[in-house]
């Protein structure tokens, strides 16, 4: 009986020892985690497949591109020459105009004061405008100025200021023929008109002189060039259609090259009523060379608006009592 118990004990010990040895041998072996890693492996495989498909799509897109495709060029600069003069609504007019110009890319505002010097009001407005600008000034001779009570059409206005803007352009942009500094368009924008942003896109490709309708001008709903076969053949206007160019100042733009090539072209401050535009255009272009814009001159994109002159009777009465508004407050 003792022998049997001893045999059983030895056998039990041997089996346990073998089990322990086997366990110790397995400690150094890599665990087979295939079942646990299977979802992760599938995810990695799927992502690799999507990456491969994206790489193939990118190759196809690149293949469709021209290998020598040039970068987009900067559009020609529009130089806007604006005469302005001191009056109650000046800052309001210039603020409205400047905020229209902010929506137009590649625009340079040439603002010319009818004044013997630059004024702080205009200088401050330009500095705060966020626009590229040039601030100029030149005074209109006294004999050419409108007097109180004169109708607005009696004498040409802004001729000296527009000529000053042209003078600056011709000096600033003087360069060898064909240079990039001669690329651009010149437009004469009065400070009281209303301009559609689309108008500036229409004029940007001007080769010589481009033209379009102007609304609310000359006692009419609009004035415009009449176009047949893509050419200007006459003008729809209510006054003196026989003028060389019966156009409003807001109704045309000139290429910078044409301005630089025709150094003597300028506005005649002594021109008869309605002939100021013609005095300049005759030195730049012929009627046959005019380039109709705005859907063959069928769309109005600029309006010859005027701000009502403010009535200051109450202000004058308070001033007489010493109770007027503070002049230090800029209006």
**Strand order within the widest sheet?**
3-2-1-4-10-6-11
* Arithmetic mean of pLDDT: 85
Span of the ends, CA to CA: 125 Å
Written as H for each helix and E for each strand, in order along the chain, the element string is HHEHEHEHEEHEEEEEHHEHEH
Largest sheet: 7 strands, mixed
What is the helix content?
25-40%
Structural class: alpha/beta
Give the C-alpha Rg. 39 Å
What general form does the structure show? globular
The low-confidence parts are: 31-38
What can you see in these coordinates?
This protein is 37% helix and 18% strand. It is built from ten helices and twelve strands. The chain has helices at 2-26, 34-64, 90-101, 120-127, 159-172, 197-203, 256-261, 276-281, 294-297, 313-320; strands at residues 77-84, 107-113, 132-137, 184-188, 194-195, 209-211, 214-217, 220-228, 231-236, 252-255, 291-292, 302-303. The chain has a seven-stranded mixed sheet with strand order 3-2-1-4-10-6-11, sandwiched between helices. It has a three-stranded antiparallel sheet with strand order 7-8-9, with no helix packed on it. Strand 2, helix 4 and strand 3 form a beta-alpha-beta unit. Helix 3 (90-101) packs parallel to helix 4 (120-127). The longest helix has 31 residues, at 34-64. The chain is globular and about 120 Å long. Mean pLDDT is 85; it is low at 31-38.
